[in-house]
Amino acid sequence: MPELDAAFAALSDPTRRAILARLAEGEATVQDLARPFPISQPAISRHLKVLEDAGLIETRVDGTSRPRRLNPEAVAHLWDWLGQYRALWEARYTRLDTVLADLQKDETP
Element (H or E) spanning 70, and its range? Predict the structure, then answer.
């Protein structure tokens, strides 16, 4: 599970999450990604390195340009892992809803 650890560590930073949200709209260059942030381009590049090392994004070589894009396999892997826990919690909430409904029936005169 080291890839999950790296991915969640990368996602712990709000700037990196914002970068991923932007990349969900389509690939972008470093300059495009840096534009909305009040930090330097080298700082954005360091964030991109963390995301790339975690496998969440990839770089495409296009002449002298190096646009970044989401790595769909890595994102799907995260969704699969989270989905296991979503199903568990949904089942628990369904049981809780049943218990609460039974309690409300008992309290109704």
Answer: strand 68-70
